[in-house]
Amino acid sequence: MPRALRACAEAFAYFTVIPMGRFAAGPAPDAYALSYLPLVGAVVGAIAGTVGFAAFALVHVSWAFALAWALAIGLTGAIHVDGFLDSCDGLLVTASPQRRLEIMNDPRHGTFAVVGMAILTALWLLVLAPVAPARLPLLLAWSGATARLAAMTNAWIFPYARQGAPTNAFATRPSIALAALSLVLVEVLAWYLSPPALAIAPVAIGCAILAGKWAARRLGGGLTGDVYGAIVVVLEVALIAAAGALVS
Description:
This protein is mostly helical. It has one domain (3-10, 30-247). It has eleven helices and no strands. The chain has helices at residues 3-15, 31-34, 37-59, 64-75, 79-91, 97-104, 111-128, 136-152, 176-193, 200-218, 225-247. Helix 8 packs antiparallel against helix 9 (176-193). The mean pLDDT is 91.
């Protein structure tokens, strides 16, 4: 199998629960496979949004947005949400950088995680509720791809925070060529969503870098996979809210 297809399959196998055959039991992705993360986000969002729209169109459920939201999280195995929970516990506590890293590595979740998830869920559903069901597939595909591209930008700026990267994903940098193609994908989706949304991706990237800089200071100069996950989910909520303001 060509390297590009293999890397793409590895990204889907690691970042989603979509069956990928022999890749499902494979190792964590390297930096090249990580470069396909925006595509993963677009596909997950499109599937979740399509199911939500289909539920509304076929059986007229009024909570189609909630179904799409739950499916978008479920399709990823909640990997980014888990990163958000760990980041809430580790980044918000008053402690040394090393202690914060230890807390983030603990599978148990504390008060900051519970409160953070409650607030995030309320905001997530609040910004999704007004969205017309027919727009869910495009909106979630765009927000999923854009959030992941923006978060991934930090991989070129900040080192891995822990001693020794656990996977090759943090040993080298993602592919610039694939990042450029991802930006094209994001902007094409933005154009069909609403032409003014073309300006949102650069702003999202800037916000992701600022968030990465703040987190890196809290963790002694680097980032972890949990931080990337946290940036993804927070940006998705912000992007959906921004798109709603543009379209309305």
